[in-house]
Amino acid sequence: MLKDSYGREISDLRVSITDRCNFRCTYCKTARGVNYVERGKLLSYEEIERLSSILVGLGIRKIRVTGGEPMLRKGLPDLISRLAGIPGVEDLALTTNGFNLYERVDVLRKAGLQRVTISLDSLRPDRFFEITRSRDFEKVLRSISAAREAGLRPVKVNCVVVRGVNDDEILDFVQFAWQQRIDVRFIEFMPIDEDEGWQREKVVTGAEILETISPHFELIPREPANSSETSKNFTFADAGGGVGLITPVSRPFCGECSRIRITADGKIRTCLFSHVEHDIKTLLRSGASDQEIADFVVEVTLKKEPGHRINEPDFRAPSRTMSYIGG
Ligand code: SAM
User: Fold this and answer.
1) Of 72, 121, 137, 160, best ligand 1 pocket probe by most atoms within 8 Å of the beta carbon
2) CA nearest neighbour of 273 among 239, 302, 304
3) Confidence bin at 165 (pLDDT 50/70/90)
4) How many domains does the chain have?
5) pLDDT band at 33, cuts 50/70/90?
6) Cα of 274 to ligand 1 centre, how many Å?
7) Is 6 among the domain residues?
8) Does 162 contact ligand 1 (Cβ within 6 A)?
């Protein structure tokens, strides 16, 4: 089992396959940033497959494909079927903004995708546009329905709650999840936005969110599927689906973190908030054997940070934001 120096077992891999995104969510990206990594500098699907397979050999069980917007990269079903074909992968998921998932969800499902998380921060078209600077609201809703109809389970909707921006929609989102029989997960706003507009006052804590919901919906706490689950989950008393609270700011879960990440340009990051990246691409392209690559990953994993330090006085945000790292 892959372990870090604090004894945490690393079983969860997030692979970013592109740093491009067609949305410009205000809490993530700046309005016009276009410093994309050139195509040749991205890991190829063959390289991602090889690396993932080595990592699965070390104990990774869960792979999430993300970005940037992963649906922008050509041939995604090919990558999904490569990853699904690695013996030992128990969970294969995708995070997307949902702009075109409805068109390709069946192909991805057939390729071996098990579940999907779709980001949606407002149920009001005008506000959706203000947050994402995209007009694809109806398409995202269509993708959520299509994911359910295609049999992906569970379908999760991620909503980043920012005070004064969309915190008045918490109950609307819960109602939406209840009607659609899906999971809505409220995420605390983290200091990892390109415009550096994060302020502690803008964070709506998980406790506040629960207080808002509880008088209106009966929620039953769900047993964690595993000790490293990042969200505190609830099911509806009277319907499928439920609510999750992801609280990296008010109740960090670093002590249970089981993740490492690979950026689209082939760097291992041992924490979302790391200041150091470890270049695995050069090794992959240098003719290194699988054993040499595995040894490198084991060594890097031992350097995993104890925590993200968001609440420490000397906290510094990482130089790359979620969209470049892979959320
Ligand atoms: N394009 C895909 C999407 O929209 O889901 C995948 C990449 S996106 C960076 C992954 C997740 O990161 C999204 O759910 C997004 O809301 C979240 N995210 C980005 N910046 C964030 C921030 N500053 N605080 C909290 N969550 C953030």
Assistant:
1) 160
2) 304
3) very high
4) 1
5) low
6) 17
7) no
8) no
